Amino acid sequence: MRLVSREKVRERMRIYKRSIREFARTYKENKMGIVGLGILLVFVFMAVAAPLIAPHSPREMWLAEPLSPPSKEFILGTDELGRDIFSLLVYGTQVSLLVGLLSTLLSVGIGGLVGLIAGYYGGVVDSVLMRITDLFLILPGLPLMIVLAAILGPSIWNIIFVIGIVSWPSVARIVRSQVLELRERPFIEASKVANASDLRILFYHIAPNVAPLVFATAVLGIAGAILSEAGLSFLGLGDPSHISWGMMLHYAHEFGALEIGAWWYLVPPGICIMLLVLSFVFIGYALDEILNPRLRRR
Amino acid sequence: MGLREYAIRRAIECVVLLILATTLNFFIFRLMPGNPLAMYIENPMFKAETKQLLIKRFGLDRPLWEQFLIYFKNMFTGYYGISFRYLKPVSELIFGPRLFNTVVLMMSSTLLAVLLGVIFGVVSAWRRGTKVDVSSLVVGLVLYSMPVFWLGLLILLVFAYYFGILPFGGTITRGLHHQNLLHYIADYLWHLLAPMTTLTLINFGSYLLIVRNTMLDVLTQDYMLTAVAIGVDKRTLLFSYAMRNAMLPLVTIVAINLAFVMSGAVITETVFSWYGMGRLIYSSVMERDYPVLEATFWFIAVMVIIANFIADIVYAYLDPRIRY
Question: ipTM of the assembly?
Answer without folding.
Answer: 0.88
